[in-house]
Amino acid sequence: MVLLAHLSDTHFNTRGRSSERAERVMAFLADLPTRPDAILVSGDIADEGSAEEYAQARSVLLDADLPVLILPGNHDDRALMREVLFGQEPSRQPINQVHRVKGLTLAMLDSSIPGKGEGALDELTYTWLTDLLAATPAEDSVVLAMHHPPVPIHSTVVDPIRLTNPERLAEIVAGDDRVVGVLTGHAHVPITTVFAGKPLAVAPSVASFIGCDWEVSAPGHVPIDYAPDPSLYFHVIEDRRLLTALRPVPMGGWLSEPLE
Ligand SMILES: [Fe+2]
Ligand SMILES: [Fe+2]
Fewest Cβ atoms closer than 10 Å to its Cβ: which of 38, 80, 90, 233? Predict the structure, then answer.
């Protein structure tokens, strides 16, 4: 069994609130009796994509004693992410990464388009994924992760800026028995649905909650809510099956006694 903790959309900014929420979630994960095999953070790490925000993200997210796997979203800057967060050369090429653990291949795809809100998987990324799958053992399970959901999810905010070219990805997902599911962020609301016949889990945001289109009161209204506690997903991958559990993390701390 593989246990993944899945955070998304931390939107680190210079005001400190996002940082406090991410710190709380990381502290919760650090205290878990069963350690996750890895922590995935599925994009929109920074709010403005500044070096200062990535420095914050580095100190909060990369202080953990287990692998923290970070992929970019539409608010991120590839070059600064590489330089400040990963300590790498500041290239603007897609940030595609793989993590292998206990028979799971987690392929993290860069669905961002520099300077744009919507997403796409470019030719370099599709070639990278095809080569990766060709080199992945037949007995492995494969999970694909990226920032942008590949299907509409009744989000007035995010549907117009979802993944714009999901067709080739759908063929890969449907045609490969090893692929057990797809994980994304971007929507700031926990949603599970199906993509190409496999589970699609859209993770909640650590920073804020965005209501679905039935919460929109007038054209152009953005139903964003900063009051709910941060939350995350846990994913269990075993026997070629993906199980997803939602976990809100109260900012006030752990409550182990029932309320009177
Ligand atoms: Fe976001
Ligand atoms: Fe996003």
Answer: 90
